Amino acid sequence: MSQNQWPPVVNTNRLNAPQLDVPPRILLGPGPSNAHPRVLQALGMRQVGHLDPAFINLMNETQTLLRYAWQTDNQLTVPVSGTGSAAMEASLANTIEPGDVVVTGVNGYFGERLCDMAGRYGADVRRLEKAWGEVFSPDELRAALAEHRPAVLALVHAETSTGARQPLEGVAELCREAGTLLLIDSVTSLGGVPLFLDAWGVDVAYSGSQKCLSCPPGISPLTLGPRAVNKLNRRETKVPNWYLDMSMVGKYWGSERTYHHTAPINMNYAFREALRLVAEEGLEARWRRHQENAELLWAGLAELGIGCHVPREYRLPSLTTAVIPAGIDGKAVAVFLRENYNIEIAAGLGQLGGKVWRIGLMGFNSRRENVTLLLAALKEALARQ
Amino acid sequence: MSQNQWPPVVNTNRLNAPQLDVPPRILLGPGPSNAHPRVLQALGMRQVGHLDPAFINLMNETQTLLRYAWQTDNQLTVPVSGTGSAAMEASLANTIEPGDVVVTGVNGYFGERLCDMAGRYGADVRRLEKAWGEVFSPDELRAALAEHRPAVLALVHAETSTGARQPLEGVAELCREAGTLLLIDSVTSLGGVPLFLDAWGVDVAYSGSQKCLSCPPGISPLTLGPRAVNKLNRRETKVPNWYLDMSMVGKYWGSERTYHHTAPINMNYAFREALRLVAEEGLEARWRRHQENAELLWAGLAELGIGCHVPREYRLPSLTTAVIPAGIDGKAVAVFLRENYNIEIAAGLGQLGGKVWRIGLMGFNSRRENVTLLLAALKEALARQ
Fold this sequence. Notes:
By secondary structure, chain A is of the alpha/beta class. Chain A has helices at residues 37-43, 53-70, 84-93, 109-120, 138-148, 171-178, 197-200, 226-233, 246-253, 265-281, 283-303, 330-341, 368-383; strands at residues 26-27, 76-80, 101-106, 124-129, 152-156, 158-159, 164-165, 181-185, 204-206, 220-224, 319-323, 343-344, 346-347, 356-360.
């Protein structure tokens, strides 16, 4: 095939784009949060191949560190090669077989998404609903398990859309009685909020990298415990999602090292560094830091006459839904913060649309200086209205 | 929930891992290739939110630049938030409805993978087979289209497992007559090998970032032309893959900017920079560079008594399958190159296992200095056997 046969190259879209530059945002919304500087350094490291002995070693370290962060010994504990939603989908795709009853706690946006995803995998989805910001009691969960005898109970541990923390103590025991796998969303809790997968008996969990782990989005933790792996191994049909099929991905991350897809090398560098930072700080100290900075925020908001949507008992330290005071234009305040202070906070979603701001203090961003600056900027924004 | 109720933190997996360090590999295998240094710089840029005006602007630039690289004006031209296999799966998940006949050209590993994936989406897969390294003739494709009248014809433009380039001129015309969508894998051609999506009438294409675009893996180009978008819009059922559902992802990348999932911010930075480099160099110059360096490699291999598996007419400049001479331990040579020269080349897969080395000269790595060094190192390795 000689060059003479090629059509001419069209230059319409040959954009002369400027060198990359972005404003120095302080990301205090629901995520992404700013990556830790050491994570960004690791991200830019030169590459090795995805089967290089140096990379294999790094994979092993990453898995161990991820097990520490999640407090689990699950063998199948891996970073999925996509953002948090990919790990969410992987958690369902690998544990649901068509016709399975899946009870989903719907008390926010991500509960809704779980229903949508589970439906696509053929689940018979039963919605357990509550107002956004509330959580499910053990009695409510017990009743739902007794009524539906589901294959999977899916709960959101940390609802990024509402700022509520779903207590999980004792839930696994109820699930065992019903023969149910317990699956949780820990996107906004892993690395920032107390979480004990094995002690709490969680069977399946997923998370994101860009929240309390302070790694850019693009890689996302997933873990399957023994009961979930058993179910995966006994499937009668292939997982109806090739990219997220953990029976294959697990062989790349397991001792076989069988090629499945090319791992996102640099995102894995960054993710390992993020997990190293968790191990260095220690979970107890990290959880305490998140809690203390959140309490500083809540006290400061109260002084400004701003309440919190979620009762203190179930309030996440990583994500606060702050109630927009009457008469205040919530969107204008967010724009003021962005344009004058490079601070990002977010609007409410769904039932909380127009009612709250979502303020995240996650990972590297959970620092006293951010809280104090945000409160000062918020005070100024409110005074201008 | 007071801290007193928490179980103790277990420190078994609290690994004291060293600071990240990896050998300075020259990645001359089938990918990933080394990222361009400017791409690694962009990758480490501080983050903004995925709905930040600065990011929206960057998204628009990226789409335009990707259209240039692919020579298409398709509106739905986006980077998928995963590695090339995710874009591959997205191409099928969005265009296949259960029961659709899909004819797949199987003349290498990635043709096989297309069959596996398509089957998971309920396609009636018809395999069009050839020996690994060969390509399909227009007559063979015409006959297959006439026999199967498929909804989709899936062909691998650049087979990374064999180094063969499938000619595509005229194929779309055959597809139109049969009412068939033409879907191609351009993972190892985009940015390195002449490719004219619109002029050639390709309906659906996907690629990877880590080959001729010299961006790390973790983001992957996908484009759907008008006929494919029409089919997507007329679907009777939801795309059975939430993360890759282009009817939703397209709204985030389109004018609506509706949140779907958190985009991998830093990978998008890197990807934009990689595409900027393509636009700066210009496609014609870039393709010429890949061709010239490949010819230098082929001539040098011939001097060492090493032939190429693929006839010159269909040989990819980006990936060469070099035939391992009789009596030579191919694996030992690859290990020698890695351990003594930090050069990565790869083994053959499938039908070519043990028969060839796979040598990639892709993007930033398609440089004279890499060819000359590799040939010198290969010569030394052969002399030692």
